[in-house]
Amino acid sequence: QVQLVESGGGLGQAGGSLRLSCAASGRTFSAYAMGWFRQAPGKEREFVATIRWTDRSTYYADSMKGRFTISRDGAKNTITLQMNSLEPEDTAVYHCAVRRLSFPTTWPAYRASDYDYWGQGTQVTVSS
């Protein structure tokens, strides 16, 4: 099976930074894109950012632009989410996800239904 494990969550301060990582392991697969979503209590799952595996093209939700950066970690099946200028509204459980390489492709992959594998999530709490 494919396993996705998020790390780096915790308590951040408003205006500060946190860096989340997501490592994929298990069954070998080809990824088309990996992304981050978040979900706060009582709210719907929200798209954060995605990165295309081949060329590292990125796409962000409007509210994340200029604050969050998604990137690939070299040759590893790992992505990171650098979160700067944190706000209390960023408090949520952050999930990483993988879309397998299949056709037709979908880009940008901003819908939860675009993804095939999901991690358990990591809690991010931002205090004022």
Provide a descriptive summary of the structure in words:
The relative contact order is 0.32. The strands form two sheets. Strands 2, 4, 5, 6, 9, 10 and 11 form a seven-stranded mixed β-sheet that branches. The chain starts with a strand and ends with a strand. It has strands spanning 2-7, 10-13, 18-26, 31-39, 46-52, 58-60, 68-72, 78-83, 92-100, 117-118, 122-127. The chain has no helices and eleven strands.
SSE topology sketch:
Layout: E1 2-7, E2 10-13, E3 18-26, E4 31-39, E5 46-52, E6 58-60, E7 68-72, E8 78-83, E9 92-100, E10 117-118, E11 122-127
Parallel strand pairs: 2-11
Antiparallel strand pairs: 1-3, 3-8, 4-5, 4-9, 5-6, 7-8, 9-10, 9-11
Which stretches are poorly predicted, pLDDT < 50 over at least 5 residues? none
User: Which strand-content bin applies to the residues?
Assistant: over 45%
The gross shape turns out to be globular
Profile the largest sheet: 7 strands, mixed
The N- to C-terminal Cα distance equals: 40 Å
Helical content class: under 10%
Please provide the ordered H/E string of secondary-structure elements.
EEEEEEEEEEE
DSSP E strands, number: 11
Instruction: Tell me the structural class.
Output: mainly beta
User: Rg from C-alpha positions?
Assistant: 14 Å
Roughly what is the average pLDDT, rounded to an integer?
94
- Put simply, the count of helices is 0
